[in-house]
Structures are given as C-alpha cells and as structure tokens.
Amino acid sequence: MGVFDPLWGLVTYDLGIDLGTANTMVYMRNHGIVVSEPSVVAIDKRSKTVLAVGKDARQMIGRTPANIIAVRPLKDGVISDFDTTQAMIHHFIHRAHSYFGKAFKIPRPRVIIGVPSSVTEVERQAVIDATKTAGAREVFIVEEAMAAAIGAGLRIEDASGSMIIDIGGGTTDIAVFSLGDIVVDGTIRVAGDEMDLEIISYIRSKYNMLIGERTAEDVKITMGSAMPLKKEKKIGVQGRDLLTGLPKTVEISSIEIREAMMGTISIITEAIKDTIEDTPPELLKDILTTGVSLTGGGALIRGLDEYLTSELNMPVKVVEDPMSTVARGTSLMLDHIELLERVQKSWEELV
Q1: Quick check: 142 pLDDT over 70?
Q2: Which of 68, 226, 290, 303 is deepest in the core (most CB within 10 A)?
C-alpha cells in the first residue's frame, strides 16, 4: 500500500462486493450494505447502450421489445459478457458512492470481490479488469467461501476445524477451514438457478405450460422447501399453454415445488458429502461439535438446514442474514489488509 493511503481513506469509501450470478451486494466500509440488487442489465441492441441495471432491469425480463434485451452477464459465478459486466459494476460502484448524495467527484475506491474457488486464471483476470475499468483503483480477489466464513463470524484462524456451505445463484461453494486457510474445498456450478430451471421443466412436463425464469424464481422463494411443511400451500401460477398458445393458470402445491427442486438439492448434498469424505478426521470431529454453517440465498429455502442435518449426520445451521455473508466478509477483510494480501498471495501461488 502507498504512503498516501490514509489520505485516500478520508475521501473515498472502499467497497466489498459479492458479485453474484443472481444478485450483487455492495458493502461499504463502516457503512454496511449500500447496494443489493439483481445482477441484471437491460441493453438496447441497436445502440449498445445500457438502459437499466439491477431491479429496474429485472422488471424487464421477458417483457422487452425486440430491440431491448435484459441479460444476466454472469453465468455460474463467472463473467460471460465482459462489457455488460463492466457496465453493471460501474453502475453499482456509482450507486454506492451516491449513497450519501455527494455532488462532487469521489476518488476511485479499493474493491475486494469474492469469486468461486473454481474460477480459472482467465476468469479471475476478467473480474479484475472489469472492476478496474468500472472505476476501482485497486482490486483484490478472494474465494467466496473464505469471504463467507469471515462474514459469518467463523473462527477460521483457530486450529480447530470449521465448515461452510454457500449456496448462491450460479454456484455452491463448500469449504473446511483451519489455521486461517482452506483445508478442503469444492465448488459445483449447480445452485439456485438450477432449481428455477427444474421448476420450469416440472410445470412444462406436468401441466403442458411454459413459465418464465422470473416466475419460477418467485415460485421458489414463495413456495420452495426441502422438507414437508407444517401446512402445505397452494399458489396460482400463470403461463402460456403449449397446446393453444393462450394464457393459462394452474394451481400448484408446495409439495409439487419441493418435488421439482429435489433433484438439484440432491446434487448439492452429494457434493457436500464428497467434501466431507476428503476432510481429515480430526477436523471432522471439530465440525461435529461446532456444526456446519449454511449461507447464501439457498440457505433461505425452508427446511434445507433440517434436510442437510439429516443427510450429513451433523448439525447444519443457517447463519444470520445469510444473503449478505460474502459481502460482509469482503468488507471486514478491508479492515485487515495484511490478511487480505496474504490471501491474495496464496491465491496467486495456486493459480
């Protein structure tokens, strides 16, 4: 770090970003979450200009005219469209610095971003380049599992073992920690998005009706569960009849939605079991005592912690505010630059 960093700290606000496939959260140092919006960008295909980002863009999904497309520029946790991702990051950084309504130009922030542990060097560099082009003066990359563990308050520096499962939109990250580093980890590109696709496929197959991804996600949030509910629910779902092409409404139960989602949940469960099998026995003994921490948007699925507890034969608990753990962790790491630099160096040696 340069000798002018303390001065820069007075006039800029360093940011921690959870750049998710489904949602992006920006955590501003000393001020908490200042941006929490869908990772969606609406673009005019003719002029290539960005029309909307975040919530406004998500409202356009499935509703745009031919010259406008609403896209999610990240797929499975990594950049699939560089220019659109850069525009989205630029928008969110600007939104974060507009939090206080400042009229003057604010110097560029330092930014730390969490990415899945499975990303390649090319994908990692794409994140760095997009963030710097979007206005960051310095960019640090950390594994999402590490950021989530720190954000969840796990004592990863201890000699005892701890474990976290972070289920996002595009990826599920699983990691076991000891002595301040990851001992065993696993990332699969199966998570919340696959649950949405399973719901679409189920409704198409059983009711001969097509629904959009937005509708499927809303149904998952409203009705999704991994265990039987005390009182099962029903909801009317609108879509297009595949035979007539006309609008159609069917009533679907939470039992059906759970059945649709279980394929994805089973894949995630098997990935967790694979990570546990690779965990040293002494650390596994610690985890049996302390339990497994469940974070990410997937942690909000009703009964998922109970289901995993049964399947893994060890306690699984949802952390407080699971959606923001990665963003909180990145922000906390900005307060400990020496740890940040060590993690960065470790990452670079690995890749």
Answers
A1: yes
A2: 226
Q: How far is CA 142 from the centre of its chain?
A: 14
- Cβ atoms of 72 and 78 closer than 8 Å: no
CATH number, domain containing residue 198: 3.90.640.10
Q: Are 295 and 148 in contact (CB under 8 A)?
A: yes
CB 43 within 8 A of CB 56: no
Give the whole-angstrom CA distance, residue 280 versus residue 263.
29
302: Cβ contacts below 8 Å, ≥ 6 apart: 224, 225, 226, 227, 229
**Helices (runs of H) and strands (runs of E) counted in the chain:** 12, 18
Whether 213 and 300 share a structural domain: no
Most confident by average pLDDT, 65-79, 132-146, 222-236: 222-236
Q: What pTM was computed for the model?
A: 0.85
Do 80 and 186 reside in the same domain of the chain? no
Residues 117 and 137 in one domain: yes
